[in-house]
Automatic annotation (TrEMBL):
It comes from Hymenobacter amundsenii. The chain crosses the membrane at residues 12-29, 41-62, 96-115, 121-141, 153-178, 193-214. Keywords: Membrane, Transmembrane, Transmembrane helix. This is Uncharacterized protein.
């Protein structure tokens, strides 16, 4: 494999995760004006960047970071669930999200300790994350379409953020489904190509998070857009 391609993959990885600082700083400056799901969403970029750093520390110290990957999937999912739990205002939806969170934690533990173990990526848990959060994103879009007919959707902060989340998770479904197989086959080129695609989608999500937080003006208050 050519060295320039390896360097490109590493640079895109660093750029995608490093860019997470920007939406966090924008959100931090507007933190007193954030309500609904945006209050929790501002911690998502910081979490992703922190777990990325922790993963590299684990690789440097032990040449082994899979437990960190497992923890990252669980933490990321719980943050997204909290985002939509805070965004929706009906008790029934909130209750379903809490039940989903409990089920997800139980399945994640089963996957990590029994089904796949800590010697490979928790692909089943990542797939479940994508299905659950994509479902909540679609429900959010439905509520926005019904209740915000006279509003430009792209002027709604959570609409922009949800687009970023859905693009990232839908684009990484294939990555997590076949990554363990590629590692087993020692197919480095295909693995790097998939992770390069993932980095590009993560960078796009970071940009859409920036858009979402910039839509919250310092003197305005964001109200939950769904009920």
């Amino acid at each position: 494999m050519q060295s320039w391609f390896i360097m490109l993959c590493k640079m895109m990885d660093w750029l995608a995760y490093g860019s997470m600082v920007v939406p966090f700083l924008i959100a931090h400056r507007r933190r007193h004006n954030l309500t609904g799901g945006l209050q929790t969403l501002r911690f998502v970029p910081l979490f992703l960047l922190g777990m990325y750093g922790l993963m590299h520390i684990a690789i440097r110290l032990w040449q082994y970071s899979l437990p960190v990957n497992h923890l990252n999937t669980v933490g990321e999912t719980l943050l997204y669930l909290k985002v939509y739990h805070d965004e929706f205002v009906t008790r029934r939806v909130k209750r379903y999200i809490r039940i989903t969170a409990a089920f997800f934690l139980a399945f994640a533990a089963l996957d990590s300790f029994w089904l796949e173990g800590f010697r490979q990526i928790n692909a089943y848990t990542s797939l479940l994350e994508s299905i659950v959060i994509l479902g909540l994103g679609l429900l959010f879009f439905e509520r926005v379409l019904i209740r915000k007919r006279q509003t430009s959707f792209f002027d709604i902060p959570m609409f922009a953020a949800t687009i970023g989340i859905m693009l990232y998770l839908s684009g990484t479904i294939v990555l997590y489904l076949i990554s363990n197989d590629l590692i087993a086959k020692n197919d480095e080129y295909s693995s790097r190509m998939l992770y390069l695609t993932s980095s590009c989608l993560l960078l796009l999500m970071s940009l859409l998070f920036c858009r979402a937080f910039l839509l919250v003006q310092p003197d305005d208050e964001h109200k939950p857009t769904t009920s």
